[in-house]
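#dry-run=false #mode=assembly
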Amino acid sequence: MTTTMPAGVAAARDLVGPAIGGWLERLSPDVRIVAAYHLGFVDADGAPSGNGQGGKALRPALALLSARAAGAPPERGVAAAAAVEFVHNFSLLHDDIMDGDTERRHRPTAWTVFGVGSAILAGDALLCLAQDILLTDPAPQAVWAARCLSAAVHRLIAGQGADLAFERREDVTLDECLQMAGDKTAALMACACSIGAIGVGAPAELAMGLAGFGAHAGLAFQLTDDLLGIWGAPEITGKPVRADLRARKKSLPVVAALSQDSQAARDLGALLARPDALDEDDLLRAADLVEAAGGREWAEGEADAQLAAATKCLAETEMPDDVRAEFAAIADFITVRQN
Amino acid sequence: MTTTMPAGVAAARDLVGPAIGGWLERLSPDVRIVAAYHLGFVDADGAPSGNGQGGKALRPALALLSARAAGAPPERGVAAAAAVEFVHNFSLLHDDIMDGDTERRHRPTAWTVFGVGSAILAGDALLCLAQDILLTDPAPQAVWAARCLSAAVHRLIAGQGADLAFERREDVTLDECLQMAGDKTAALMACACSIGAIGVGAPAELAMGLAGFGAHAGLAFQLTDDLLGIWGAPEITGKPVRADLRARKKSLPVVAALSQDSQAARDLGALLARPDALDEDDLLRAADLVEAAGGREWAEGEADAQLAAATKCLAETEMPDDVRAEFAAIADFITVRQN
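#status=ok
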């Protein structure tokens, strides 16, 4: 496993970042500043604050690799990469409102700075822009790429809908939770891994192999993310620690723990069912109970299994060796547990 | 002018309603109930409450006429009609949150029933579904229809962004306000009037003539809507009366009034600039001041001028006479001021 960011991710940021900035210019100024703030191009006053892509640019990197897997130069994957990144950030803008999250990427979330209405609108604009990018591509395969993206957006929305509904339910099963994570996280990752190939007219076997890799890697990523949300260091994650527990999110380690028949599981259930807000001591105790009930061990094991399945998909799919190695490096990188 | 709903609007509801219901089935249950409630298919408990389309189904009717204008049967415009209606309702779901509106179509708005998060997500789902509908159409022109819709969505978002920004500004000009209304309302109306024709491969002159008609009719509609928002009967509009004034919206009659150099205009400006909430007497006084400053007369005159421009576009564009007559009937219908 690697702990430093693979070179391909930084290279993707350099290639896709300017394209993203260019597409943002199409938005009206009132909407653009919110989107540009969220993406890290400007600060809250609109002053330039960086080259954008405050996030990890993982999905753009995967989309560029996807084009290369089909034998095309990475430049031909830029539109798809930008579109996927816009969809990802559309969902972050809206999810932060829904979840009441106040911090992302070490900065206040957009809705806390510009208001809920402006953040909703900026998310809408990025979703629309994502489809635009693919629809303005004159290549006949572009419409296939647009369909691939649209299907991923539907699953993303279904997953977020389930995530919200789970907060109000006490009886969420682990299967439901895995389905939710598959929709909310893995579907867009699968899209990122295949859309570049689809956009350059790759054969179906390649697209499906890449999508399979992305789906498994995406689940491994979500499991790792859930683990970091409980035991990760906030200075690394950029988010407040144990925020998911505080919001009583039915994350995968929590649901795995709650599904056990043990005293720790029952204590965890009782703690999370308490009507009052949970203080820091409660949250630490909840984290300990998740671990005692086996939720941490299960999630770590499942993350490893999903990573192995992703690696198997990769091995079984024909593509240039250097591309396969870069895919593998990104999958390793996003599933390293820095805790 | 006609005061009863043109037959084409009810017919469109019968043709497009089932298609809309069918497309909703693609959404996950958690998201679907919110969208179905908003569209009037179900009540807050999910029990069937009607055949959907609580709204006027104007845009679907225009889209079907648009296909007929190009010599195609209305059935070939159904996908475009459903897509436009989904975009319209995506924007209503999100705008109601942004504007804090609690009532629409004589019912509580979706966010007040299901929460802000669920209403955001339902809007997202309808926007995605709208693009999906056009992308799954195998006809080669479908991608042109998808681009037409996407361009309208961008203008719609820009218009709503300006609308939000105007609430925080005291110096909005009438030109800016007209631009905002053109983006927020007229662009989607222009799209509705042309997308059916575009989707069946109509020549550019026809599509542009229809879009011109829709843009002018859309502005006339917005002016009428703004007038009804101040002087209309809530039992007809389905919305609380003077809600726009209460929210200090920079609607067209208000901005026209504020742009005057008169005592009434200055009094209106002072009243709307008051930091405290406006009570019913204040709102009645504000309405009287808009009228005294000439805002009502200007908006009525401008609505008539836009309707005349729409009629001129219609006369100058070649299409079957019965289709032209139905377009004209809808334009008349949506600009009747029931007050």
